Amino acid sequence: MKRRIALLMVGVMFGLTACGTQQVAEAPTEQAQETEAATEVAEQAPETEEFSESGEDITYVEDMVLSTDLYSITMPEEFKGKFLAYINGNEISFFDKASNEAGFGGYAFSVVADVDKNYIAGGMYTKVGEIMTSDGQYVDVLKGYPSDVQWDYVTYPDMESAEDYNKLYLATDSIIESIEAKEGCYYMYGAGIKGEDLYFTTLDSFVQACKEGWDAAKFEENGLSPEYGALIQNEGEKALNKIGYAYKDISSDGVDELLIGVIGDSSEPTMVYDIYTMVNREPAHVISGTSRNKCYALEYGGFANVSSSGANENEVALYEIEPGTTNLMQQFTLKYDGYEDEKNPWFVSYDDGATWESMTEEDYTDRLKMTEERYLNLDLKPVSDLIPIDYSKVDLSKYATFTKMIDDFKPGMGYANEPVGDTDVFFVSSACYNGENDTRNAIDSSLFVYDNDSIVMIGQVASIGTAYPVTLNDGYIYVGGHHEVFKYTVKDNKLVVAEEASEVFDTNGNATYYYAKDGAESQEVKDDSNLTRIFDEYFSGKPVEYSVVQD
Fold first, then answer.
1. Cβ-defined contacts of 196-202 (< 8 Å, 24+)
2. For residues 138 and 199, what is the distance between their CA atoms, to the nearest angstrom?
3. C-alpha distances in angstroms, 93 versus 8, 168, 181, 385?
4. d(CA 513, CA 520)
5. Cα separation of 104 and 541, whole Å?
6. Is the CB of residue 482 less than 8 Å from the CB of residue 138?
7. CA dist list (Å): 324 to 102, 158, 246, 280, 334
């Protein structure tokens, strides 16, 4: 597996935190020291080029438009003449020109379309989006970080004072967001990383189990914590206001995990009973617990598993989740075991409990305190918020205006008034998320109009995730997913499918295309021209901007 070693090793190692954003604690102050350090660096790195693992020279380019097989990047005009780029397959690495030519590397960031899955997200790479290729495959887009100081630290003691390097480094996200996929491909910035995109089916199933009133045994039979069943048995439907969920990237790969627990005191760290992560683009269960075997998400990633088998025995085990798997990597486990040694009950293990080392009480207490200080207080949202209002069962005659409807909305629901065709339509979403430019977007909406001064629901529209917000373009509503797209309009106060297109792949990756218009049944067509055209209309439109009901 080829790795980018050369690009990350240029520069002097100072043992700093990743990305080199922490200032050097004791920067050289004497001119002689500065000269010596600069000479040392110059001897370790070539002036204008680096070397690949194979020993071949690397050629930098300064083109303002940089391209690979799958995507292209147009650099902002402000960086003209101030950066260098190195293109290696579907990876483009960016360097501050002045720092590089001074012998300090200058590496700021990389963009990788990980076609061959040679990169492991987590650590120095995080996922930032996806490219859908012309044959329907999904390719992770990763952002790479420098692992050490890369600017001219002799001249500039901190990154902020190295103005050109700092600007390039800070522009990373906006540059990556502006990527354009090659013809026939689609680039989706933010796709495949947000919890609301990834776990909606998992949460739907979980909410359904809660609504059906599963008892503790049934939750446990299905691999989930029995704590929810106990709460439901005691409190009925009110339990849905106390069982909560949150999205948090605790595997440090850029992709959210789903954490489920019971909403408690807001001033205390949050007890988590179930954790899900993403494996091969599907939600996968990592761990389940109880009140005596619970988890806490940790600052800086990972989680603590806190368990107790009695008053004189308890353990605190710290784990990282191996990105893209459900595998757990232990950091260490602390154990208080008065049954094992009543006088010296303090132990630590580094091999998941296979062997134990004795500790002093002071060392145990200090390590435990440092661990507990990392426990996170998560903003769990009650699962009751996930149960949408079924407007087909609501007596709309009780609302004289759309404004009156808003009074009954749940927190997090959104609304907007927009023209569709020649009709003013009231959009009501079950939930919203943060879109571009601080807007609030949604992936679903129930649609309402006034008909003879009465409010009428005319239908619903929905996409599969936040990469496909409900969008308007030229009087049409667009929603869709990775392989299908729908285009709606409103005629005579009725929601009408103006066009729809889709593609289906067989086991060999061969695509079959379908198309329909004016509400007709989809028919097989010869190519993807309709699918591409409607997606182009979709992505050139403007997502509906919703106002959101607050708590």
1. 196/247, 196/431, 196/433, 196/465, 196/466, 197/465, 197/466, 197/467, 198/255, 198/256, 198/258, 198/278, 198/283, 198/465, 199/247, 199/256, 199/258, 199/276, 199/283, 200/465, 201/283, 202/258, 202/276, 202/283
2. 18
3. 10, 12, 17, 43
4. 16
5. 44
6. yes
7. 39, 35, 19, 7, 27
| Distance (Å, whole) CA 294 – CA 286 | 13
Across 202-263, the runs of DSSP E, i.e. the strands, are 243-248, 257-262
- Closest C-alpha among 171, 47, 146 to residue 99: 47
Digit-by-digit pLDDT tens for the chain (551 residues) are: 333 322 333 332 222 332 333 333 333 333 344 334 444 443 443 333 343 444 456 899 999 999 999 999 999 999 999 999 999 999 999 999 999 999 999 999 999 999 988 888 887 899 999 998 988 789 999 999 999 999 999 999 999 999 999 999 999 999 999 999 998 898 989 888 989 878 888 998 999 999 899 999 999 999 999 999 999 999 988 899 999 999 999 999 999 999 999 998 778 899 999 999 999 889 999 999 998 999 999 999 999 999 998 888 999 999 999 999 999 999 999 999 998 899 999 999 999 999 999 999 999 999 999 999 999 999 999 998 888 888 888 999 999 999 999 999 988 889 999 999 999 999 999 888 877 777 899 999 999 999 988 999 999 999 988 889 999 999 999 999 989 999 999 999 999 999 999 999 998 889 999 999 998 999 999 999 999 999 999 999 999 999 998 86
Spatial neighbors of 318 by CB under 8 A, at least 6 apart, are: 298, 302, 303, 304, 305, 330, 331, 332, 333, 371
Beta bridge partners of 335: 315, 347
Rounded Cα distance between 28 and 35, Å, is 10
3-state secondary structure of 9: helix
Alpha carbons 11 and 510: distance in angstroms, whole number:
48
Report the SS3 class of residue 459. strand
Structure-token match 């009074």, residue found: 407
Q: Name the DSSP letter for residue 126.
A: E
Q: Could you report how far apart the first and last alpha carbons of the chain are, in Å?
A: 50
The span from the CA of 423 to the CA of 456, in Å, is: 13
DSSP code of residue 463: -
Residue 168 dihedral angles phi and psi, to the nearest 5°:
-65, -45
203 close to 197: Cβ distance less than 8 angstroms: no
DSSP string for residues in 30-78:
SHHHHHHHHHHHHHHS-SS--B-TTSPBPPPB--SEEE-SSEEEEPPGG
Residue with structure tokens 């004072």?
A: 161
Tell me, letter by letter, the H, E, C secondary structure of 239-253: HHHCEEEEEECCCCC
CA diameter of the chain: 86
User: Which residues have CB under 8 Å from 546's CB, separation 6+?
Assistant: 414, 415, 416, 427, 429, 432, 440, 441, 442
